[in-house]
Each structure stands twice: as structure tokens, then as C-alpha cells.
Design brief:
Distance between the termini: 81 Å
Order of helices and strands: HHHEEEEE
Strand content: 15-25%
Radius of gyration: 30 Å
Shape: rod-shaped
Number of helices: 3
Helix content: 40-55%
Structural class: alpha+beta
């Protein structure tokens, strides 16, 4: 039984697709696409050297181009701040005098205990302050 080279390339592509599904490593998918390119080259009647060359060039190009783009999108995505992390950097209104020892602010519609970041600094009622940190149930403001 004589099987054409393009069929072998497609079998290889399927073989590379299996670890892609099992391991979720996208590099296997890129190699599988290279194998499909090799199958197309074989179906067009080119020799084994051209088939392997196309497989290598397509696979390496995909790994070299797609992988950094995917990593940039994965790492560059800003994280969604939730809970107290979402309150950091917001503005609040002073309700009771805030100094290094304490005070009260209205932050995100709620009344919070607060203290000044710099213990020598104080803020009077009605002043706008920036929340720098949340320390337990106390907002640290400046």
C-alpha cells in the first residue's frame, strides 16, 4: 500500500493536534499548521526537501510571530481591581477631621475610618483627599 506524502503530513498534523488538546500548549498547534503547509506542498507535487523546508519555515514563523503577540496580550491585560484594591487611588470627602490619629471620610458612598499618610498632616471636613492604601478597615489618605 503506497500512501501519498500529503496524507502522511496530514497524519502528522493530527498527531501534533493531540498534544495541543491535552496540554494546551499552542506551540503544538503552530507545528500542526506547519504540517498542513507541508501537506499542501506535497499535494502540489514538490519534493520532500521543499515539503520539510515549508514545514520548518511556517512552524518557526508562527512560533516567532504569534507567540510573542499572544504573550503580550496575556501579560498586558490590566487586572480587574476588586474589593479594597478598587478603592485605592479614589477620591473621598472628609466628614470628620482626619490626621495621623484618625478621622472619618466618605468613600464610594460609605463612611470609612481614615488616617493621614503623613502623621503631621490634617484634613478638615469638606476637603477632598486621595486614598493611598487600605489598612484593615482604615483608609490611608493624603
Amino acid at each position: 500500500m503506497d500512501i501519498d506524502a500529503w496524507i502522511w503530513w496530514l497524519i502528522g498534523a493530527v498527531g501534533l493536534g493531540i498534544p495541543l488538546v491535552l496540554t494546551a500548549m499552542p506551540e503544538f498547534g503552530m507545528f500542526a499548521v506547519g504540517a498542513v503547509a507541508g501537506a499542501v506542498t506535497a499535494a502540489l507535487g514538490f519534493g520532500i526537501v521543499a515539503q520539510v523546508l515549508v514545514f520548518v519555515v511556517v512552524s518557526v514563523a508562527l512560533v516567532a510571530v504569534v507567540r510573542p503577540i499572544a504573550a503580550r496580550h496575556r501579560d498586558g491585560r490590566p487586572g480587574l481591581a476588586t474589593g479594597v484594591d478598587a478603592l485605592k487611588g479614589r477620591q473621598a470627602m472628609v466628614l470628620e477631621r482626619v490626621d495621623g490619629n484618625g478621622g472619618r471620610i466618605k468613600l464610594a458612598g460609605e463612611v470609612w475610618s481614615a488616617r493621614a499618610l503623613d502623621s503631621g498632616q490634617s484634613f478638615e471636613p469638606g476637603a477632598q483627599v486621595d486614598v493611598v492604601d487600605i489598612d484593615g478597615a482604615t483608609a490611608v489618605v493624603m
